[in-house]
């Protein structure tokens, strides 16, 4: 095994290890397609009356939009509930979306029909296992927050590079973690669920493949609203691994970040989106 192959193996194994939970096991949703399908089916139903795209996704697309030309045929990987799909469809000549969930594709088809978007086609496949005609290329291949179930990450990234004619654009939302968890970890010594995979892992893999990608960090803010104090505490302890944590420590760590306004508890979380792009290497 040469140096490049060994480096690829190391970074892919690191990615695969990061897919495991904090007990060292792969969560069933990572490997069970039926469970993944049920997750999306339920989530789509819960979001029926919610705004699409998410507020932070609008900011991300604002930073992305100049990368797409009006005559482009764009391939989007893992579109979810359309945070970028509908904006892309308005901007480019043709859009193809690929996803492993039939529920997602059915939802997007209906949503595109309602928006009178006729330039979108749909492919039902797992990205890393999809088979293309050898001469089929897209102007831009795009995927945001779509890699969480991709065990064969090297193959997934290589396929993005292979299918992109002009540009490849991928990205992940990233840290820092909500700041009260940092206080719980640093001041009180609690173990917390820090992210196990991040954008830097994708950059390292691309570098190992001989792809020198650009990376832009976009600062974002997500506002969480809680209708009562009990909900605030409950939903801000989920990343604590220490079993016997003290609720008063959680309250103290939260106090400097939470405001009470209009009958609700407001928590602003400042984080980033990593936007990674490169000209394809063929």
Concise description?
With 282 residues, the protein is an alpha/beta fold. It has eleven helices and eight strands. Strands 1, 2, 3, 4, 5, 6, 7 and 8 form an eight-stranded mixed β-sheet that branches.
Describe the structure.
Helix 1 runs antiparallel to helix 9 (about 200-210), helix 3 packs parallel to helix 6 and helix 8 (about 180-185) crosses helix 11. Strands 1, 2, 3, 4, 5, 6, 7 and 8 form an 8-stranded mixed beta sheet that branches. This protein has about 280 residues and is α/β, with parallel strands linked by helices. The chain contains 11 helices and 8 strands.
Strands, helices and their partners?
Blueprint: H1 3-18, H2 28-31, H3 33-46, H4 55-64, E1 73-77, H5 85-91, E2 94-99, H6 102-114, E3 120-124, E4 138-144, H7 153-163, E5 164-174, H8 179-186, H9 199-208, E6 214-226, H10 229-235, H11 247-255, E7 258-261, E8 264-278
Parallel strand pairs: 1-2, 1-4, 2-3, 4-5
Antiparallel strand pairs: 5-8, 6-8, 7-8
Helix pairs in contact: 1-9, 3-6, 8-11
Strands, count? 8
- Main β-sheet: number of strands, strand sense, barrel status? 8 strands, mixed
The ordered string of helix (H) and strand (E) elements is HHHHEHEHEEHEHHEHHEE
Q: Based on helices, strands and strand pairing, what is the structural class?
A: alpha/beta
Instruction: State the helical fraction.
Output: 25-40%
User: How far apart are the first and last residues' alpha carbons, in Å?
Assistant: 23 Å
Strand content: 15-25%
Shape: globular
Helical run tally: 11
Instruction: Identify the quaternary structure here.
Output: single chain
- Mean pLDDT comes to 94
Report the uncertain regions. Answer: none
Radius of gyration: 20 Å
């Amino acid at each position: 095994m040469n140096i490049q192959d060994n480096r690829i193996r190391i970074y892919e194994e690191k990615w695969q290890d990061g897919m495991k939970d904090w007990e060292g096991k792969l969560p069933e949703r990572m490997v069970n397609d039926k469970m993944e399908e049920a997750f999306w089916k339920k989530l789509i139903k819960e979001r029926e009356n919610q705004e699409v795209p998410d507020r932070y996704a609008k900011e991300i697309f604002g930073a992305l939009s100049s990368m797409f030309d009006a005559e482009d045929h764009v391939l989007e990987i893992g579109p979810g509930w359309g945070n970028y799909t509908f904006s892309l469809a308005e901007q480019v000549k043709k859009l193809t979306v690929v996803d492993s969930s039939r529920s997602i594709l059915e939802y997007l088809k209906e949503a595109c029909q309602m928006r009178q978007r006729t330039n979108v086609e749909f492919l039902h496949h797992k990205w890393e296992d999809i088979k293309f005609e050898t001469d089929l290329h897209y102007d831009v291949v795009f995927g945001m927050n779509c890699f969480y179930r991709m065990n064969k990450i090297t193959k997934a990234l290589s396929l993005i590079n292979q299918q992109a004619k002009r540009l490849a654009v991928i990205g992940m939302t990233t840290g820092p973690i909500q700041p009260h968890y940092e206080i719980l970890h640093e001041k009180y010594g609690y173990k917390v669920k820090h992210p196990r995979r991040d954008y830097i892992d994708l950059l390292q893999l691309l570098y190992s493949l001989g792809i020198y990608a650009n990376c832009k960090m976009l600062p974002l803010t997500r506002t969480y609203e809680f209708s009562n104090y009990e909900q605030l505490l409950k939903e801000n302890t989920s990343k604590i691994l220490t079993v016997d944590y003290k609720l008063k420590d959680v309250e103290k760590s939260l106090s400097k970040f939470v405001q009470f306004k209009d009958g609700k508890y407001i928590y602003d979380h400042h984080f980033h989106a990593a936007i990674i792009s490169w000209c394809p290497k063929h």
